[in-house]
């Protein structure tokens, strides 16, 4: 489901805002409200985008040109929240402690829950793949020269 271009959704980018923490429902609700007020005060239209949810992360593309505006690796998305006031709006926090965190506010074509559930499913798939990879690597050990060798699990040899 998430291979290649993954799952796509049509939406509009409400805006991007620097935030001071990696998570929090209240933080997200306030950021979303701030972005909505800013766009309303400016009298501008929200940018139409395509959200691509794939194994390599989340891509926000310009709907008209197809240009990639943002590409966010899954492991750097720290929080997702739906708007309490609008069922078609949601946002997520992306970043790291050393580079800061940014909130991305988005309004979807259909119910935002569809996108949020797809993102959560992606996180689970990526987590499961990582876990499988760690288990596979436990079967190997490294000799003194850095070469990978298969561990012998049979105690009789």
From TrEMBL:
Compartmental location: Cytoplasm
UniProt entry keywords in alphabetical sequence: Cytoplasm, Developmental protein, Differentiation, Phosphoprotein
Stored Pfam families: PID
Domain PID: 4-135
PROSITE patterns: PID
Biological process according to GO: cell differentiation
Official protein name in the record: PID domain-containing protein
Organism: Daphnia pulex (Water flea)
């Amino acid at each position: 489901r998430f291979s290649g271009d993954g799952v796509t959704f049509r939406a509009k980018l409400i805006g991007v805002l620097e935030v001071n923490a990696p998570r929090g429902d209240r933080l997200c609700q306030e950021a979303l409200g701030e972005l909505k007020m800013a766009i309303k005060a400016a009298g501008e239209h929200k940018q139409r985008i395509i959200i691509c949810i794939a194994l390599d992360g989340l891509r926000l593309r310009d709907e008209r040109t197809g240009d990639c505006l943002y590409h966010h690796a899954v492991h750097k998305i720290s929080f997702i929240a739906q708007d309490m006031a609008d069922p078609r709006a949601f946002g997520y926090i992306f970043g790291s402690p050393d580079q800061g965190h940014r909130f991305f506010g988005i309004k979807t074509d259909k119910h935002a829950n569809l996108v949020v559930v797809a993102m959560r499913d992606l996180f689970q798939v990526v987590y499961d793949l990582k876990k499988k990879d760690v288990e596979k690597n436990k079967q190997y050990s490294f000799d003194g020269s850095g070469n990978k060798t298969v561990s012998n699990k049979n105690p009789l040899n």
